[in-house]
Design a protein that fits this description.
CATH class of one domain: Alpha Beta
CATH topology of one domain: Rossmann fold
Family: Belongs to the methyltransferase superfamily.
Keywords: Glycoprotein, Membrane, Methyltransferase, Signal-anchor, Transferase, Transmembrane, Transmembrane helix
Shape: globular
Distance between the termini: 13 Å
Largest sheet: 7 strands, mixed
Protein name: Methyltransferase
Mean pLDDT: 79
Oligomer: single chain
Low-confidence stretches: 1-16, 35-63, 69-82, 165-171, 184-191, 321-334, 453-468
CATH architecture of one domain: 3-Layer(aba) Sandwich
Radius of gyration: 26 Å
Number of helices: 19
Number of strands: 17
Structural class: alpha/beta
Strand content: 15-25%
Membrane topology: Single-pass membrane protein; Single-pass type II membrane protein
Subcellular location: Endomembrane system; Membrane
Helix content: 25-40%
CATH superfamily of one domain: Vaccinia Virus protein VP39
Amino acid sequence: MRGPLVNKLSLIFGPRPPLNCILLCLVSVCVLIALLSSFSSTTFDSVTSYAKPDVYTNYRKLKEQARNDYLELKSISLGANLIKDVGLCGKERENYVPCYNVSANLLAGLKDGEEFDRHCELSQEHQNCLVRPPKEYKIPLTWPAGRDVIWSGNVKLTKDQFLSSGSMTKRLMLLEENQIAFHSEDGMIVDGVKDYSHLIADMIGLGSDTEFLQAGVRSVLDIGCGFGSFGAHLLSLRLMALCVAPYEPSGSQVQLALERGLPAVIGNFISKQLPFPSLSYDMVHCAQCGIIWDSKDGLFLIEIDRLLKPGGYFVLTSPTTQQQDSTTSTKKGITSSSLEGFTKKLCWSLLAQQEETFIWQKTADSQCYTSSSQDEIPVCKGNDMQMYYQPLARCISGTTSHRWVPIHSKSDHLNSTELEIHGLHPDDFFEDSNFWKLALRNYWSLLSPLIFSDHPKRPGDDDPLPPYNMVRNVMDMNAHYGGLSAALMEARKAVWVMNVVPLGARNTLPLIHDRGFAGVLHNWCEPFPTYPRTYDLLHANGLLSHIASQKCSMFELLLEMDRILRPEGWIILSDTLGTIEKARTLAAQIRWEARVIDLQNGSDQRLLVCQKPFVRK
């Protein structure tokens, strides 16, 4: 692909400009650069240090454009064929999610639902190509409109699938010619979501669902979230509600939720644990999620117990009560009685039941599991914090952990005692927090002029406000303590963050969950469990060096980043100079627009800021 400067040169010199003309232009630009350099020692590839957050001025933008013109002329003189662009994948891969190959899993002998689970070790589908968007794909609407209206061409959901869905889905969605509209949260349309949320609050003894935070409920795992309307409501209450649902080749709950800009990830515990540590969530919710909870001798309920924090809630809306025939009461009785035996073994108490909705509360007393009456389910041995798709275990987790703190006893911010549980000194934590506050100011100052100057069709003054409504979600691919997520929240950006802790690095995921943030453990030598085009901004500090130490391919990682990033989305990579230069070369092959930024702090660290183009074919 040729830039605007190349097109202008083609009009002047023709499609094949003479070599002497090119060299003349190159020499002229070099002289211009030398003159500019005499005025400032920070002409190109530089931003101010983190102590000075105003990164870009109009003068810097002019110098950046001059630098880009120079590099473009240089590429012409060297020849465009030296770097070959990566080709596009076929149409069949428009919604491709690696590691979920049902046919390969069946051939490997997997059955009883395991064929639908994640098996990267069986996937041999490596193709070095870019997953292209569907022909009808459009850039998502900005928030908050994009939360309630999405383009139907952006997701794989047919009209027949919509019409064959249940009554709850039809109440929450309106399928128009090229859009899918979800009922708003303004109270004008009664779609049942607000009433349902108020019902849950009332059943656990609260006056309103606005009191969830006061009751210690900050994080919710929504299993089988439908199309995310309940999670969207909880997000409006400042709760972190993460949707987790199985992989679906079409009509995916996770894909629809992410397209709305809501937190979601592919996950299924048919045979394996979810990639979260023990004691991660204040509430786990299942409304007609399709799981038979009393199957496999209660293994699914044991996994819920592992994920719940002490005093946390399990909310179950059972589909068996939706029947209207004579078997309704019988089915309800079977569900209630069978779950009662398991929940007692787990030291859960049934708080309330109203029609089809049940709410249990996990005990806050860790000694309950070691009493003589609880010997049917043993306590797990060893450290269970580093869980990465391990087999479901029939044992109780977390009872000996220092993180065993009831949810109603937790404060909004971690105190020094809680930080020490995670091996952190309060001064180090404070320093990390300040670093990310300043880094965020630089990021936003950096992206604002780039977004608006690169896209003049979008409104904005010469130095516009940060593009908070153009970035709905961020994936922090090497999240450390979750400092970027905390900085975004403190700055009141309308953004949520998926915090990813790489396998092999220090496992800070328990700390991230204790802060009330969304996060998963992931091996970046493998693809991430999400659909294509689901994130607006990818951030990675030190990840490239980490995967090199793990003997993994940087090129395959960048291809995976391209898959999960939406067109016109942004990438911010921070690493050592040599690593960043290598990534910049690869970024050119992937067709990203890339710029190296010198932090000007005397270190070997550099930023690589990239944008994914909207490639059509």
